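Recall the central idea of this unit: under ordinary conditions, the amino acid sequence of a chain determines the structure it adopts. In this exercise we apply that idea directly, starting from the sequence alone.
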Amino acid sequence: MSQSMLASAAMFATAAEATMPNRDPRWLRASEAADLVGVDRSTLWRWLRAGRLPDVKMYRPGSETFYWKPDLEAFVRQRGGDVGDEKDRTTE
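Accordingly, the structure predicted from this sequence is:
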């Protein structure tokens, strides 16, 4: 692998992001992520598609989606910890 390819790969993923979800408990399944945020899985998915979770990393090794727990925790803190109390809608 060339040096430029290695540099690009290093910029794309940090060591934590490159860890396989089944080996790192910081990667959450959709149901776990939704529970952490305090919404239904379908709400979490709609928010993601609507761009309301721009700083949350995802990993899709096939049909299953994993969410990076530290990013979700930061999202909850940024929202004042009341994300689960918010109405289920895709726009504000």
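Strands lie at 27-29, 58-59, 66-68.
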